[in-house]
Amino acid sequence: MNDPFNFLLKSGTSKNFEKKEFLIKQGEKSNKVFFIKEGVTRHYVITPDGHEKTIRISKEHDFFYSSIISYFKNESSYIFCQCLTDCKLVIWNRNHIEDLFSQFPEIASFKNQQLINFILEKHEKEISLLTQNAEDRYLEFCDKNLELFNRIPHHIIASYLDITPETLSRLRSKKY
């Protein structure tokens, strides 16, 4: 197989989703894996006091599970996954993609690298929330995702950074 990535993309189902459309809601089960051709999505939870906390933002060329707990443990999701923009996604269900992983070692290796990338991303975010102040988290986000400020609501970015929208506005008004 010359190009496992393109083979994998061609084996999935392409589908368009509208802005604000949910890929999964809390309490539902999903066995889906997604790749973003175009658009931005978010994973979020609702806290006991009713606030939304964004735990992941995905954009073009990202792979993600609608709910990693639901996919791997067949349990109800505790998160929501929602399109923040109109999205063009490639979708695989668990049986189909796991068959591909077992048949093609190159694709299985790709899957392992994606899981490692996901673990590293989650670890880095967790550490930044514990060790960095709001300004440092904001600057790091800008280094990696500056274009998102023109694409998604700022209160969602604030939620992802674990700061208030007012703090985000104050940080954005500073000249760095």
Automatic annotation (TrEMBL):
Domain Cyclic nucleotide-binding: 8-118
UniProt cross-references to Pfam families, sorted A to Z: cNMP_binding
Transmembrane segments: none
Protein name per UniProt: CRP-like cAMP-binding protein
Organism: Seonamhaeicola aphaedonensis
Upper classification of the organism: Bacteria, Pseudomonadati, Bacteroidota, Flavobacteriia, Flavobacteriales
